[in-house]
Fold this sequence. Notes:
By secondary structure, chain A is an alpha+beta fold. Chain A has helices at about 5-15, 35-50, 80-95; strands spanning about 20, 25-30, 60, 65-70. Chain A has a single domain, classed as Transcriptional coactivator/pterin dehydratase (Gyrase A, domain 2), CATH 3.30.1360. In chain A, strands 1-2-4-3 form a four-stranded antiparallel beta sheet, covered by helices on one side. Chains A, B: Belongs to the pterin-4-alpha-carbinolamine dehydratase family.
Amino acid sequence: MTDETRETMFAPLFAAGWTLTDGRDAITKTYQFANFIDAFGFMTRAAIWAEKWNHHPEWTNIYKTVVVTLTTHDAGGLSALDAKLGDKLDKLAGGTIG
Amino acid sequence: MTDETRETMFAPLFAAGWTLTDGRDAITKTYQFANFIDAFGFMTRAAIWAEKWNHHPEWTNIYKTVVVTLTTHDAGGLSALDAKLGDKLDKLAGGTIG
């Protein structure tokens, strides 16, 4: 992927709070929820989408915080799948019907 | 907690593959599952126990791997709650009825 393609493809996610991951061709976002139930509820919905699409996040949960990193191992870096999953995660986190 | 108390309380977990976390008064274990569904299924069962006991893990999931760190923030380090949750996680990961 060229830098220009990447910039275009991920512009909406960068505008939504995603950033390039330090030292990797990946994107990262930190979500904060009201409590653990909301945080893990988000992860549960996201997990089913991830499995359905066979594209899985790297993620860390500490109580009401979830830090997500997306990259495409098979592609050696970012791909259109990451843009698609990132957008889905934002919708799930916002309560939009997934 | 004295070093002796800690050693006694966590001896069964150390024997089961838990180790002291670098630079923290915490314990860590890495679980490997057959696939993402098994890994996240383990997390889902563990999440409900964690919420029920009001004691939550710090954990990272990458596909079929789950890395768990346990500590008791209110106690500023390890407590009996961590021993209890660590034992529960091992039972859940092993398929023992939780």
